[in-house]
Amino acid sequence: MAVNINTVYTTVLYILNKEQRGYIPPAEFNSLAVQVQQEIFESYFPDGNQLNRVNQNNTQNDTEFFNMFKDNAYKLYPFEEDAVFTYVTAQQAWSLSSTRVLYRIGEIMSTYNNNGANVESLTDLLSKKEYSITEKSKLTSPTQYYPISYLTNLTTTSIVDPIPLLKISPVPNSVTANCVFLPANPNWGFTTGQFGQYLYDSTNSKNFELDVSEQTNLIMGILKYAGVIIRDPEVIQVAMQDAAKVEQNEKS
Questions:
Q1: Are residues 86 and 172 in the same domain?
Q2: Domain that holds residue 142
Q3: Between these two residues, 29 and 156, which has the higher pLDDT value?
Q4: What CA–CA distance (Å, rounded) separates 69 from 133?
Q5: Is the residue at 102 inside a domain?
Q6: Which residue, of 41, 225, 226, 229, is most buried by count of CB atoms within 10 Å of its CB?
């Protein structure tokens, strides 16, 4: 269940107004909403890494609804998809068919039509350097049963964002991959009332795609950045302390 963007915005405005600390117009709120959602989304990966260490030490609580590692993984499910890739002859590579923005790519499956029988092979994802070395070596050259790949981008002046491409050797007949995609940017849409006031427009709005359990974190995160905009030193200090904790968590 997603987090309603109007609920978050009205709560942020209520807190700022009650404390008489200022006002955040829709354009600024939308920018902060995108930033905070991105930060929370990216925190799932270092958090999951730390929680996995607890699993490995056999100290994780495995009681139903209280396993933190599973809870963290659950928040990523809406962004995980078995994506199909399409072969681009001009690039001699496989292009992601989804219109969503790729964040990470996991297990890659290449399918080969071998004399009428399909061979599905798990494909190693290598760096470009490793790919070149492996492909040229007589001992490690790829086969239909042990294909290799590397991820690159198609960048042209006609597109804003690079298009992810997969180079795979040998070239298969079809490709799918387990991918994690970025959440879509939230947006608080509005119309203008007769007195110039902003009126919520649900038809032109986009809710946060994060789990409903993140509603409080979204509100607090936006309030911290709002402190920078309205130049409130107390809120800025809290934001800096929180950023330091996140950085320490990622490096530990």
A1: yes
A2: 79-181
A3: 29
A4: 37
A5: yes
A6: 226
